[in-house]
Amino acid sequence: MKHKILSVIGSVTALTRKQEAAEQSRRRAALATTSKKQEPTANEEYEDDDEFQDQCPEPNGYFPDAEQCDKYYDCRDGKITEKLCPDGLVFNDFSPQHEKCDLPFGIDCTKRPKLQKPQPSPHCPRMHGYFAHEDPRNCNTFYYCVEGKYNMITCPDGLVFSEKTGICNWPDEAQKKGCGSRELFNFTCPKVDESVAATHPRYPDTEDCQYFYVCVNGEVPRRSGCKLGQAFDERSGKCDWARKIPECKDWYKDQLTDEELDALENPPPKPKPTGGPSRRKGSRPTI
């Protein structure tokens, strides 16, 4: 069986995380150098392709398939063993000395876009990964799948699941169709001059005292919130205890008792650490 392996030139020593980027650059440079060589004739191309397919780029290491992102090769003393990542994961080729399959976020598969046949299960298009809710109108719910079993997760208020990054993000950054700021929020940033826009002005959420909108550059609204027991004070542009803001003083009336609000506003002091010798130097002796 013939294998198409991405060629890597030169020996590699053990890498730290800080050296991953340098290693990737070295490998890309090696591939670029190889591709710039004079094009062979038809016979030479056929022979070179056989050699490329049948031989390990280096005697030992883990090397990506040239076409399929979740396929890779384990080379031991020049002997090739074809391997496949679990469904939903792709081979991370940051170093030939590491056998690592990862979620596809942040791994460049543009030059090897093929993948194995999916093994779907309820809410999981593949066995592993983060996947958006089936209803495109559901912007903040997604599934985390492991071995084909899912956990449903909901993003914090004001955030949207990003299929590109696999995390919750601001609607304008997630760029999920139908889930932009205009679709999600019943709010439009007021027009302001450039000097005000540069401060990213804040405005209250008229339907919820705990939340407010930050208008990035005066144009793009992002919904943010105050901690429990607090509300947004439009006069100061900051969060404060709700009972100090006239229009929001009763906001938590049906959620928290007065005693609970008192405890939030006046938390008990943290106990001072005890035990062990003091690190302070003693007083200077008198002479």
TrEMBL record:
UniProt xrefs under PROSITE patterns: CHIT_BIND_II
GO molecular function: chitin binding
Extent of Basic residues compositional bias: 278-287
Bias (Acidic residues) ranges: 42-53
Biased composition (Basic and acidic residues): 17-26
Any one cellular-component term (Gene Ontology): extracellular region
Annotated stretches, region: Disordered: 16-57, 259-287
Keywords assigned: Chitin-binding, Disulfide bond, Glycoprotein, Repeat, Signal
Domain of life: Eukaryota
Record domain Chitin-binding type-2: where: 53-111, 121-181, 186-250
Full protein name: Protein obstructor-E-like
Native organism taxonomy: Eukaryota, Metazoa, Ecdysozoa, Arthropoda, Hexapoda
